[in-house]
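Render this sequence as a predicted structure.
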Amino acid sequence: MDNLFYSADKNTKGRDRTMKPKDIGEVLLQEKRLVSELVTLMEKEVEDIIGGNVDALEESLPIKQAIVDSIAKCRYENAEYYTQPTEPDNVTGVRALQQELIALWRKVSGLNRISKTLVERRLKEIGEQLKPFISSSKDVYTRSGMVSTRSSCIIKGGT
């Protein structure tokens, strides 16, 4: 019981729940690492969208989801560190980490907006390219030039 930070309040993992001066820094560093991975993945995603590499884009989605889930889990497990005041000697380091996190999150948001815009633009292009095929299936003409009441696109189900 000589430790100043000793607490009988332990969580189920046995970790001391009292906040030590370095804990908030460690939590923020862990989030910074995860957000940096997310930025790298989002930059690659934008490159894949521009390059039309759909397979790589699909493969990256579960990885991106896992990173976002890890960030959420980290925040949930360490929620008390975000609300408690920091020690005076550690304030400048924590503030610097918080500013870096803000910049990283802004970068992620910007990359996300760019990728959304690129995907929407590509889907509109695909829609425009498909319009002739879709509109041709609406009006079907017979050999005599009359509009047919039956569709020429018959799908036969086999058994």
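Summary. The helical segments are 23-51, 54-77, 79-83, 91-136. The radius of gyration is 27 Å.
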